[in-house]
Every structure is written in structure tokens, then in C-alpha cells.
Automatic annotation (TrEMBL):
Gene Ontology molecular function: carboxy-lyase activity; hydrolase activity
GO process terms (BP): secondary metabolic process
Compositional bias (Basic residues): 300-319
Spans annotated as Disordered: 273-319
Entry GO terms, CC: cytoplasm
Protein name, UniProt field: Amidohydrolase-related domain-containing protein
Pfam families per UniProt: Amidohydro_2 (PF04909)
InterPro entries with a match to the protein in the record: ACMSD (IPR032465), Amidohydro-rel (IPR006680), Metal_Hydrolase (IPR032466)
Organism: Mycobacterium kansasii
Domain Amidohydrolase-related per the UniProt entry, residue ranges: 8-274
Length: 319
């Protein structure tokens, strides 16, 4: 919030100047330090999620290491990339150091719905309804960006949580992605020429990457979504109340749980309501040292690319 952000960070437009980016970073770093103190008062119950910005790759990677050092067990909040802002899409090789940093430090990546698409500005009453309907789809895109770019394949220990995006989309999307992957990998097919060498040669199906590395933060899971739990993966779903938002279940969370899980076996309910969240790899370990170099430091070309990206991003913000 002001003076660091013009509004809440999830809804704030990208910074337009280097000074604005600097202020936002100052605000997020202060937030992350405060959050670590807050969680330390009840570490068995609180797993804070640190925040970063994507306008400066070097600073983002550095803050991931700091989030691990602070012991923020909830991981890092990955902002959405709004088209047209000049920030590379999540499928770009530009982000390779970020994925490597999160994997190396054990920091879980959280991708929240609501900030990856354009915000309505035309003032029409229907525009907000359209935004509400579309906003989750823009956030869903991170899944196929990370799969078809090969990021999940190259970083098998990277964990990604898609939160507050509902879960009803997951099973149909995985089916669609599996079909696309087969078509991309079919040699000499018409569609394969558009797939590129990475998407066309993935060793696993997209649904297998989901089952290995991805989870759904299922805010106020609905019965119709719960019915798809075996296709999504009971061990991939983490129920949430979305407290304290008005659209959340509080103060009627018990009733909401009964409504959704009344005919679900108790062991499955336990897995989705609490057990899975406790079993996530929420133990950030800090950058690897003592003879095991951090992947973000491997290779002169990667360091040079990161430096070029940083200078390019800063130049873009000053323009």
C-alpha cells in the first residue's frame, strides 16, 4: 500500500519508472521482514509467503534467497505477467535463474489468481463482470507456460501452487495439455513444426508434471469441484477458507466443509483439509554451499544473461 504501492500489491499495475520500482522493492522487503517476525510468534501455525517483483530479475533471485533465509515456509508469491507490459512471459528462458533459485533453496512458488490479465478501464458496468470471469484464466496460463517451456522438467524439485483460481478447470486442462503434448511430439506432423524443440520432446505428459510438482490452493472448494478430486489428485488439493475476504467461508467454515465433504471418505477429507498442506516441502534451506554451487551461479553465460536482463529491464522502466 502507499507510499510503496498505489494499491494492494496483487491489484497494482506494473511500476512505470525506476524510482517507482525502487519504492515497491523497499516495501516488499520490509513486508517480508515483518512477515518473518509475525510468523515467528506462532511458527507451528503460520507459514508466511514472501513477495517479489518481476521487473528486475537479479533482485527477484536475490530476494528468493532472503525469503529462504528468513524461514518463510509458505514460499514466494509469483506475480502474474500482464501482456503488453514489456516483462517477458513466464515461458521465457529469461526466468531460468528464478526457477533455479526457488528449486535450490526449497522455496515453494505460489501463483495467485487475479493479477495476470488486463484490468478493465473502459468504465462499462459489464467490464468488471468480464474481468471476474476471465481473471482466473490469465493465471491458469502459468501452468502451460512452465510445462511447455520445459521449466518443470529441468527443475523436478520445483514446487508450484496455483491458489485462489478454483479447481474446476484443472482436470479438463490437463486432458487438453496431454493431447497437445502428443501432437507436439509427433514427428513431421503439421502441428509439431509450431511446437519447438522443447514442447515437442518432453519426457513426461503434462498431467504427470502436475502430479509430480503442482498443487491447488482450493479456496472454498465447491461440491462440483470436489467430485473431480481423483482426476485432479486428492493429494494435490489444499482446501482454504479465503479468510478474511467477504467471499470466503468465514464465519461459516464448518458449514462449508460439511456442504462440500459430507459424502467424502474421512481419509480423503483429512488429506485435502490439512494433511497435504503439512506435507508440502515447506522447509526453505537457503542456497547450497560447501562444494555444491547454487545453480543461479553456474555458468558464465547464465550470469551474463542475468546481467543483461537486469540492465534491459531497468532501461525499460526509465524510458
Amino acid at each position: 500500500m502507499p507510499p510503496f504501492f498505489p494499491q494492494g500489491s496483487l491489484a497494482a499495475p506494473p511500476p512505470q519508472t525506476a524510482r517507482e520500482l525502487e519504492l515497491r522493492w523497499a516495501g516488499l522487503r520490509a513486508h517480508n521482514r515483518w512477515l518473518a517476525d509475525f510468523c515467528s510468534l506462532s511458527p507451528e501455525r503460520r507459514a508466511g509467503v514472501g513477495q517479489i517483483l518481476l521487473g528486475d530479475l537479479y533482485e527477484a533471485v536475490t530476494e528468493v534467497a532472503q525469503i529462504a533465509k528468513l524461514g518463510l515456509r509458505g514460499g514466494v508469491l509469483l506475480p502474474g505477467v500482464v501482456p503488453g507490459t514489456g516483462i517477458p512471459a513466464l515461458y521465457a528462458e529469461h526466468w531460468e535463474p528464478l526457477w533455479a533459485a526457488c528449486e535450490d533453496t526449497g522455496v515453494v512458488v505460489n501463483h495467485h489468481g487475479g493479477n495476470a490479465g488486463p484490468t478493465p478501464t473502459d468504465g462499462w458496468g459489464s467490464s468488471f463482470a468480464v474481468w471476474v470471469y476471465e481473471t482466473h484464466w490469465w493465471s491458469h496460463r502459468a501452468l502451460w507456460h512452465l510445462i511447455f517451456s520445459g521449466a518443470l522438467d529441468r527443475h523436478p524439485d520445483l514446487t508450484v501452487v496455483f491458489t485462489e483460481q478454483s479447481t474446476g478447470w484443472i482436470s479438463a486442462t490437463l486432458d487438453s495439455l496431454d493431447v497437445a503434448a502428443v501432437r507436439f511430439g509427433r514427428a513431421n506432423s503439421a502441428i509439431a513444426r509450431f511446437a519447438g524443440p522443447t514442447a515437442g520432446s518432453l519426457p513426461l505428459k503434462p498431467s504427470q508434471y502436475w502430479a509430480r510438482q503442482c498443487y491447488a490452493g482450493a479456496s472454498f472448494l465447491r461440491p462440483v469441484e470436489c467430485a473431480q478430486r481423483h482426476r485432479i489428485g486428492v493429494d494435490r488439493i489444499m482446501w482454504a477458507s479465503d479468510y478474511p475476504h467477504l467471499e470466503g467461508t468465514a464465519p461459516y467454515s464448518r458449514e462449508a466443509l460439511r456442504h462440500t465433504f459430507s459424502d467424502v471418505p474421512a481419509d480423503e477429507v483429512a488429506a485435502m483439509v490439512g494433511e497435504r498442506g503439512r506435507r508440502l516441502p515447506l522447509r526453505p534451506r537457503g542456497p547450497r554451499t560447501a562444494g555444491r554451487p547454487n545453480r543461479t551461479d553456474r555458468g558464465r553465460s547464465r550470469r551474463a544473461a542475468g546481467g543483461r536482463a537486469r540492465r534491459r529491464d531497468q532501461h525499460r522502466l526509465r524510458a
